[in-house]
Design goal:
The protein is α+β, with helices and mostly antiparallel strands. The chain contains 10 helices and 5 strands. The protein has a domain of 73 residues. 47% of the residues lie in helices and 13% in strands. The longest helix has 22 residues. The structure holds iron/sulfur cluster (SF4).
């Protein structure tokens, strides 16, 4: 738990972050105080089972896409092996994971293996060599005081940036595209900056952990000027808020899975904290 200190109460100098990523901006805009606990103070918190599983699935997908890119072993056995190793490694190195019990852990492990197998069978896995896998990009943009930075899971052979999500239920495509607009448009801006070409679409692929796993692609058209400027405006709001130390509670449904409720309840109104 944090206690306000003299240093914390003093007006914060304006300190710009090095860059802004779409995930940091989304996190800041969802709840700036949670962002502060998680990304500025880096308070320890138990890892949620869904976050843990999502990371292990992501590691399996990354190994598979890299194998497609390099022309290496892209077999289902390789993918399942990477997932199993990462599932254990992340538990040891980034845990503890807040499993309800051993049964929940076993189910999560099996869910991960099933959704990855479903992805390979789904027709959504790239058949041609991707342009890039896990590519870190950054880009200076008009109207944004620091560079936009991000790591794109996959850029397909025809230049489509793809982000993978694991989900417990089938997503509503319109809602999913709306929820992830900052990320999708940021990826477009990064791809355009790196290649000079506009992607034909901006894609999300959901790996859904239902009893029968589902793989759902949500494609949105590339953003026009209005969508881009809205997203750059949101990114700028996040940068300015972080730079000025504006961190405050923004209660909502997301509080149900926030690990910092005790710290939030002790939040002292009116202070600004240097990031
Ligand atoms: S409990 Fe809710 S308002 Fe408080 S920090 Fe967490 S997400 Fe933000």
């Amino acid at each position: 738990m944090i206690a306000p200190t003299q240093q914390a109460v003093a007006p914060a100098p304006r300190t710009l972050p090095d860059h802004i990523s779409p995930s940091a901006a989304k996190s800041y805009l969802s709840c700036s105080l949670r962002f502060f606990f998680e990304r500025v103070l880096r308070l320890p918190a138990p890892v949620s089972p869904s976050l843990h599983l999502g990371k292990a699935i992501h590691a399996g997908l990354q190994a598979f896409h890299l194998a497609r890119w390099r022309g290496g072993n892209d077999s289902p056995e390789m993918l399942a092996g990477v997932f199993e190793v990462e599932f254990q490694r992340l538990e040891q190195e980034e845990g503890p994971v807040s499993w309800r019990d051993d049964k929940a852990r076993t189910k999560a492990r099996e869910d991960g293996l099933r959704v990855l197998a479903a992805y390979l069978d789904s027709g959504e896995a790239p058949t041609e060599r991707p342009k890039a896998v896990e590519v870190p990009l950054d880009q200076k943009l008009d109207g944004l005081p620091v560079p936009l930075g991000g790591v794109i899971d996959l850029v397909t052979h025809d230049g489509v940036p793809v982000d993978f999500k694991s989900a417990a239920a089938r997503p509503d495509p319109k809602q999913a595209a709306f929820d992830h607009e900052i990320q999708l448009v940021s990826y477009q801006l990064l791809v355009e900056g790196a290649t000079g070409e506009t992607p034909p679409s901006l894609d999300l692929v959901f790996l859904v952990k239902t009893k029968t796993p589902q793989v759902i692609r949500v494609s949105t058209p590339p953003a026009d000027i209005a969508r881009k400027s809205r997203v750059v405006g949101l990114l700028r709001l996040a940068v300015e808020g972080i730079a000025e130390g504006r961190f405050h509670p923004q209660p909502g449904m997301h509080c149900s899975w926030c690990p910092f409720r005790a710290e939030c309840a002790a939040w002292p109104h009116g202070i600004r904290v240097a990031a």
